[in-house]
Amino acid sequence: MTTDTRTMPPPVGDERATLTGWLNFYRATLAEKCAGLSEAQLRTAAVEPSALSLLGLVRHLAEVERNWFRRVLTGEDAPPIYDERADPEGRDGGFEFTEDSTFEQARRIWTEEIAVAERNCAGVELDARIPCAALGGEVTLRWIYTHMIAEYARHDGHADLIRERIDGHTGF
Q: Domains of the chain, with CATH numbers?
């Protein structure tokens, strides 16, 4: 059994510490779900016909980090990370991958996107209004944090089920 290395969000923190604490907690949860598995296990699909895998989840969440914390928050013209042969139009958001895709590569990119996200959020007020064409108006950094917490929580649930199917490991 693996030791839980996640940091619990502050139970009595201000709003920003609470939001970033929960986002980081769920990021760490995904990392824990992937820990100690072989490349083949990380590529294992949840259950047919779904192609959902831990590798695909890490790739997808790197893409989601890029979208919200670079394209939306800063208006950066950041191209999709994963527009591989699996879907040339990039619609799958990283879930699909090719034979040469590796977990180490996906983990590195995901970690880099998280670092950029943290830098881009530094100094931005939670109430800052940010144009968001996809939603037809504006969002705040608070909204982005909340959306990202929900995105990670949902996919951590998927990761939990995939991990249990792979080796019976449950928890955190």
A: 16-167 (1.20.120.450)
